[in-house]
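## retry 2 of 3
previous attempt timed out at serialization; input unchanged, resubmitting
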Amino acid sequence: MAEKYDLVILGAGTGGYVAAIRAAQLGMTTAVVEKSSLGGTCLHQGCIPSKAMLRSAEVYQTVKKAEAFGVESGETSLSFSKVMSRKDAIVDQLHQGVQSLMKKGKIDVYHGFGRIMGPSIFSPSAGTISVEYEDERENDMLIPANVLIATGSKPKTLPGLELDETQVLSSNGALRLTELPASLTIVGGGVIGVEWASMFADFGSEVTVLEYTDRILPAEDHDIAVEMKKALEKKGVTIHTGAEVLPDTMQKEENRVSISFRSTGGEDVITSEKLLVSVGREANIHQIGLENTDIRTEQGVIKVNKYLQTKESHIYAVGDVIGGLQLAHAASHEGTAAVEHMAGRNVEPMDNNLIPRCTYSAPEAASVGMTEKEAADSGYDVKVGRFPFQAVGKALVHGDTSGFVKFVTDAATDDLLGVHMIGPHVTDMISEAALAKLLDAAHWEVAGMVHPHPSLSEAVGEAALAVEGRQIHG
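## retry succeeded, writing output
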C-alpha cells in the first residue's frame, strides 16, 4: 500500500510526537512511524520513569526526617516493588495521553520500522519511507513531501563492559529492576549517573561513582559540581574522579560484579551487586536508510543546518540524532521549529544557550547559558553574583538550605551570560533565568523583579543583586 503525506516522521519520542502535533495544527497530513511505543525513550526509559523513582526516594527521605517537622510517624520502610509499580502506572497514564493526542490530531501511526528509500518509482527524490513489520505483513510505502528524522538514541557502554541488563546495567535495565540492590557501582558521573547515585543512596543502597574526568557533572559550572560532590558524599556516596576503568577486568559471579580502575590514588578493584554504565548515548542512525540519501553524518550524528535541514533539504532531523544537548525539551523545541520551517513560517535558529539543563538529583541542579569558565574562555570580563539558600526563609521552612544561585554576567555590558543553581526545586526555578536569557535581560533587570516572600525564588533576585554587591540578606 502506498500513501501520500505532507510529512512523515521517523520516531515518536518527544521530538517526533510534538512535531506531529504541531504539523497537524498547521493543516499538514502527517504520519509517524514508531517501532516501539509512542513517547519514546523519555516516556518509557528515561525522563518520566526515572523522575518518578527519584520522587519516591525524596518522599522516603522526607518521611524518615519527619520528626524534625514535628511529625511522628513510627518506623519507616521502603517497598521497592511499590516504587516500581507507581513508576509504571505514571508511564502508562502518559502513554495513553500521547495515543489520545495522535487521534485528536488525526495523525496516522504506523507501528513498524521505517527505512528511507532512495529515488524510486514512488518518488524521483530520496525520502519515500518503507515501513517494515515484524510479522509477515507486506511493507507499507509512505510518500511524503517532507521527512523528519527523530529516531533518538540508545545507551553507550565501554569496551569490556558488555551490558546484560541483569548485573551490568544501562539506565534501561536499572528501570526494570525488581529488587533494590544492596550495592551499586556507577561508571560515569554525568547527569544520568548523578541522578541514579542520588536515588539509590536515598533508597539505602551502597553507591560508588567512577568518573573519568576530574569532577562529576563535567558539563556544569565548577561550583555546582563541587557542591554536588559534597551533597552526594554526605549521603554516603563514594566518588572517584579521574578514574579510568581498566579494560578486560570485569568479573561476574552470582550476585556480584567487580571491575578494576586506575585513578590518582593508583589501581583498585571495586565489587558490588550491580554495575550501572552511564557514559552517554549514541544516535539511532543505523539501518534507517541514510545510505540511500545525500544526508551527511559527522561524529556519529546527522549534520543539519540552522533550520534543522539535512543535505536533503526536504529531510529534517531533530533530537538526539543531531547531537547537541540531547534533552527531551530541546528535541520538542527542535521538532516544532523544523515543522514551522517546512510550513514557510519565520523561525529563529536554535540557540543552545537558551535551553535550560536540569539534574533531578537531591539536591537538584539547573543551569542556562555559559559557565563561568566558558564565559572567561570566550573573552568576557566576568562578574559573578552568588547567594545561598541558607539565607532564604522559605528554604528554612522547607527544611533544605543546601546550595545556592549563581549569576554569571558581562562586566562591560551587564548582559546575562549564564545562571546556575543547586538546591531545592531549582529545576522549576530555572525557567525564570531562561526567560531572562530569551529577553536578553541584564542582571539588574532580574533584580528589579519583585520576588514573592517567602519563596525560594528570592535567591534568584538576591543573586542578581549580588553581582553588584547589593544583596540584602547576605
